Amino acid sequence: MIYDYAKPMPMGIREKTNFWLYMTGKGVSIFGSSIYSFAIGLFVLKMTGSALNYATTLMLSIIPMILISPLAGVLADRLPKKWLVVGMDVANGTLFLLLYLYSAENTLSLGIIYSTTILLNIFTTFFGIGMESAKPNLVTREKLVKLNASGKLIDSSSSILAPMLGGVVFAMFNIRAFILINGISFILSAFTECFIDYDFNQSKTDAQAHQKRDNRKGFVSELGEGWKTFVGSKLMMDLFFIFVSLNFVLGFSVNVPGPYIINALLGLSSQAFGLINAIFPIGLIIGTLTVERLMKRVAYKKLLIAMNAFIAVLAMAVGIPSIDHGLQLSSAIYVVYFSALYFMMGVAIAYVDVPLMTLIQDEVPREKLGRVLSIIMSLVKIVLPVALLLSGALISMLPVLAITIIGGLISLTVSRAVSK
Length: 420
Prior knowledge:
Elements lengths: L10 H38 L2 H9 L3 H16 L2 H25 L4 H29 L2 H32 L2 H19 L10 H8 L7 H13 L2 H22 L1 H9 L4 H26 L4 H19 L12 H33 L5 H26 L5 H19 L2
């Protein structure tokens, strides 16, 4: 049978096509950005021998996201999603190709590397907000959970594979060759994203609301509308506080105390520390692969509250080995203990992230989704570095166990408050 391509593509095929094109586009963008950030950090460390310059390169991967997210949210709601998604991948591809041409005649200086890293993360932030706000229009409501879970799977996989691939790239390839490959990959990704149907699940009401938008409004006015939508919904505020408490307890009770206990107090080897850290994203992946089935049985908000409380308990448990690190227990016991904790945290975080994003997409009108997402992401991203700095400062003043318990109790309090 010969298919008549003049006919509209059947709904099921269009939805599957959207799904796989989304996976391809996001996968290339996330992996490309993550691998580049890791590899270029190593390049800077080797070039300068300065840990400060290396840390600066990594920080430049975070700061633009915090500062640019509000603008990205306004543009995501104002412009067609296709323009933003495709345009940002084209921008990233062009950036890498120009960097490749520049490096043919010039040495890659710190200034050029820093500037490229900033631009890369600005473009990636616009891409991320645009793609996240486009999700409800890419598939039907029944497939939205699967799309969110698949997106989380890409994020989790990149956290495992990006450092590995970045290390391989740095060891085996000239940095210029990698820059060229990355540039071409982004351009090819943009080409595939051109074929996504960004209006597949857009209702007439949503389309009319977008057409009635007054694009003459200023940035502050548009962002204010997103803020009113955000603070005007009890559900949104509950979700926000869950998100904030999750990031706070991880930064305050896990990310600083965990490595300190493992390395400084228990004196485990670097190999053991690496193994423990590798278990965490594996838990994320397992959680992502199983969350869809769980969400069919448990109410989304109930699942969020339960998992947030569970993570708080796990965070408090991180500090238990610090009570008496002179017990002379086998290193293997500590490795198993922390690996189990980190694995369960990974699973539980996936059980929070996917239903949380799905609830936000359900609650917020689609014409305002970009702005609301950008506000949430900006505020939440600020919480983590504050928690890290606060925990680092307190670790010399308080017992480590007290720090893990304080963070866990704060998170448990939030879970109890939003459950009412």
